[in-house]
Design brief:
It contains eleven helices and eight strands. The protein is an alpha/beta fold. It folds into two domains: about 200 residues, Alpha/Beta hydrolase fold, catalytic domain (Rossmann fold, 3-Layer(aba) Sandwich), CATH 3.40.50; about 60 residues, no CATH class. Helix 1 links the parallel strand 3 and strand 4. The chain starts with a strand and ends with a helix.
């Protein structure tokens, strides 16, 4: 897979398909881009060029824990990556944290986004607490109790180091107090937008996004149905489709539903892309 140096960080990426509009996708959490390859392959087979990549601090990409907001850093990285590979403007999509990233890019650089593919929209009090703890508080606690060695032993970083052994050296070179300070600022940035119906973006910001959007809500405590419905109500050119049928109480059950409905999700996005690419 090729690597692009984006804002001083090596970003691992691939392009599926050799014709059609560009579609950039990112998964939820801090997962590697390859987790979306089956979905991306279906979208590419329908005549699109799908960009999959590992965000900084994820997968095989470089380590750079900096900036005041993790999602802002990710959004700027994606813009610069798409610019480097001559893929702008592009359709941009994502699930969960990838959904927030896509929305932020559309808000900050609307000229770069032809349309949005958004699934498993995050919102609600449970999601705000759960994600703040998962992404930031747990890292602060690990660094406080055991320094950077304890951070490296966390599940996410163990996976990253398994893919990219150099990541351990980069993490161990960090001062634990600097790491804690950065995670604290990232948590504050996340929490600043956590009370909105769609975490990270106000209703007014959503209303300002006039590009076409395809919204597929989740049905679990972190990605509740009302969050997707709120995005649909606020965004002036949004379409709404439900893919999963059952309300779930755990993320494991919800992930199994999405895996089973991957073909339907791909078909929903392919239909959206075909209709809007012709316009």
């Amino acid at each position: 897979m090729p690597t692009a140096n984006v804002r001083g960080v090596d970003i691992n990426y691939e392009i599926l398909g050799d014709r059609g509009p560009f579609v950039a996708l990112q998964p939820g959490g801090r997962r590697a881009g390859a987790s979306l390859r089956p979905l991306a392959a279906k979208i590419a087979e329908a005549g699109n060029r799908v960009v999959l990549y590992d965000r900084r601090n994820c997968g095989a990409s470089g380590i750079a824990i900096e900036g005041e907001s993790e999602n802002d850093e990710w959004a700027e990285d994606l813009y610069e990556l798409l610019k480097q590979i001559d893929a702008l403007p592009a359709y941009v999509g994502g699930s969960s944290s990838g959904c927030r990233l896509a929305l932020l890019l559309a808000l900050r650089r609307p000229e770069a986004v032809r349309g949005l593919l958004l699934w498993r929209v995050t919102g609600g009090a449970h999601a705000a607490v759960h994600l703040s703890n998962q992404y930031y508080a747990s890292h602060i606690e690990a660094a406080t109790s055991g320094g950077m060695a304890a951070v490296c032993a966390m599940e996410h970083w163990t996976e990253v180091i398994g893919i990219n052994p150099k990541a351990r050296d980069a993490l161990m070179a960090m001062n634990p107090q600097d790491f804690i300070g950065r995670m604290t600022r990232w948590r504050q940035s996340f929490q600043a937008g956590a009370d909105h119906p769609v975490i990270g973006l106000s209703p007014a910001e959503l209303r300002s996004m006039t590009m076409p959007a395809c919204i597929v809500p989740g049905k679990d405590p972190v990605h509740p149905l009302p969050a997707g419905q709120a995005a649909h109500r606020s965004m002036p050119n949004a379409e709404y489709f439900e893919v999963v049928a059952e309300q779930r109480t755990t993320l494991d059950e919800a992930f199994a539903d999405w895996d089973a409905r991957e073909g339907l999700l791909a078909a929903t996005f392919v239909d959206f892309l075909r209709r809007h690419a012709r316009r």
